[in-house]
Amino acid sequence: MPQEQGSPQPTATDEIGTPSDLVDRYRLLAELSPDGLIVHQDGVIVYANPAGLRLAGAAQDSDLLGKSIIGFVHSDDIGPMMARLAALDRDGAVSGPVDARMLTVDGREFAAAVTSVRTTWRGRPAMQVILRDLHDSMTAKAALQYQAALVAHVSDGIIALDRVGQVTTWNPAAEAIYGWAAHEVVGRPVLQFLGSLPPVGQSGQVHHQRRDGTPVTARVSVSELRDLGGGPTGAVIVCSDETAKLKAEQRYAAVVASLQEGICVIGADGRVESVNPAAERLLGASREQIVGATLDHVQIWDEAGRPLPMAERPSTESSQYGRTVHGRIVGRRGPEGLPLWLSVSSRPLIDNGESPFPVVLSFTDVTERKNASAALLHAATHDPLTSLANRSVTLNAIDDGLSALRGDGDALAVVFLDLDHFKVVNDSLGHGMGDQILRVVANRLRRVAGPGDVVGRLGGDEFVVVSHSACDVDGANELASRLRSALTEPIEVMDRHIVVGASAGVVLVTDAAGWSAEDLLRDADVAMYQAKDHGRDRHELFDAELRARAVRRLQLEEDLRAALDTDQLWIAHQPVIDLHTGRVISTEALLRWNHPELGFISPAEFIPIAEESGLILPLGLRVLEDACAQTALWRRTHDELAELTIAVNLSARQLTDPCLVGGVTAVLARTGLPAEALWLEITESMLMADTENAIHVMDELRRCGVHLSIDDFGTGYSSLAYLRRFPVEALKIDRSFISSMHDDQDDAVIVDTVLTLAHGLGLRVVAEGVELQEQLDKLRALGCDEVQGYLTGRPSRASDLLPTLLLPCS
Ligand code: C2E
Ligand code: CA
Ligand code: CA
To answer: What angle do CA 680, 683, 689 make, to 5 degrees?
Structure first.
């Protein structure tokens, strides 16, 4: 049979001479064998099959034939190979297979399982080497080892079964889960240990028992094992212990269920997937009603009471934009229609980058907290007695009203109301009644005020209404009348009907230019005083004239402060004549102010300003000092005036000044005037204001030796009997009685009565404002002790007065 050159078989056939052997028994097998076949004789390669050539990396026979076999064996493996070959002492003897490292023609190492067979080549002994490439089988082995390691170390239990369900593999994780060791279970039916299993090809959660009887919840999958031909060889069970997870889940569910915080899980489709009981309670619906539905229909509003559109809800922020929202306060209608305030947090459950996201919504009830802070806010902004706006809120309302003016004919009116004689009501009926009256007044004002108007109480019996309802003077007048008439109706408290009137001042502005809330309030206050001045129970509009007066008042206050230590201020003395002797017994110190620009300013104008601004304290001290110094000087320098006394007016503010008594004694000490030469004049109204304190201070002054008299007697409400409580020694009948006594019989009777009663109480009586001789004659006839008036001497500079003082008796 012809053979191609280069193929070993023809060569062999030819050379062996027994071709039929080779052809029949060997050739085909050798050619097709996946194993390499190499024949060497005397150490020289004489034959290699195609697989042998391929393993050795030879392109053709000549790369191998004739070469030493040793050149193809790794040097370390040569010795053992030689030993094995030597042991093959007869034809057909076999050694191996053994793993050996072989070399290719270009010296690359490869591993092979080598089997050597002693054979005959050309009638002589030769060695046939069978090489099985170990590369593939080694990677398979590595894979197996890798798998075995996996099986040993995975946390899932892996249990392999044979065809009849007996355990063949039971890895350490299975030992850990079930408590059975591998050696206890291998070879035994798996159902003895695991109980039930899901059907082959499926997985599921099953409840097993451990070796010690405790329950195990496991997720188990069963898959069939088949051989290459597809025949079943067994099954593999993979199981993971879910006991802890299940417990954690149960615990988590219990925690969530017991939370006060409502929790809703909302799916990506906007439908609620789960709720806890708190959420059911806070949403006012049952789980059945909530789960599966959206929350879109639940109406919520923000803290300002504005309904929250879907786009602005926390859940939308999280589901659409993946944002987390913390503690947003929203309101919803709670049970009985009361608002329920919730602090809502929302976050995406999973952020897979693709909106809408599922969302976890949690919310707590903050109604109580919110109400408490609302109450705090209310307390901070409202008058506790009447619940009306307090001063700062009222001022804010005026500010808001000013900035809301558009200049298109709209206007802002501020009405300042002050109850008439409320102090008398309060003092005579008690504060409890007074409070009740204030509450009724507040309610009436609220009722009468317009819907957008703000009604505030500044304190005491002062109320303010800020209104946009009046556009012009008529409207403002109408508003003030309406507010006042709401108060004229008698107020019923404790079975009594009390009528309180009110005086009101109104200020109306049509443009905001330059006004502050304080300005308007002050102007309304000024107008209110004007109303009081004009006889109470009426209202006055703050107009240009009043504004001019108010501006002048402010200017005077400023100028007075600057004038304190200047000679713009000086003391005039007006003589007081003793009708029994006809001599000047005393002078009254009267403050004068020569304003550098405005000229003479009456004390009737600047004294009240000094009182309001507090300037009266330094001013009063200065008057006292100058008056006492002057009198002391006169007494020292003129024998005729050695007994001269001085009368100084005290203001209400001075009477409540804790430094008064100390100040008076210090002035006396400084000027050297004896205390008994000083008379302090106190008006009736000052005694009415704070009787207890007045008595206390007057007692102290008396103890120092200073004399006290009641000024302007008859203008107040006090009776003579009332005056007995005070340590006074004289009273000055007001000018108004004197000026009319000669033509008004009533006034003459009053003066007569006052004189009689006063003398009965041991009081000296001084008549003020005596301008006419007939007044003087009448007073003398009635037994009046002293007179003071233009008739006997005008208030004058001390230097101008001296001649009058020294004048002999008239
Ligand atoms: P007053 O204490 O009743 O003083 C008497 C006022 O009557 C003085 O007005 C005086 O000039 C005026 N007068 C005296 N005789 C006559 C008269 O015959 N006819 C008329 N028509 N008036 C007469 P004045 O000086 O303008 O003082 C007004 C008020 O200012 C005083 O009333 C007093 O209450 C207050 N005042 C004046 N000086 C002082 C002061 O130094 N301290 C305090 N606290 N008040 C003062
Ligand atoms: Ca006086
Ligand atoms: Ca007087």
So the answer is: 120
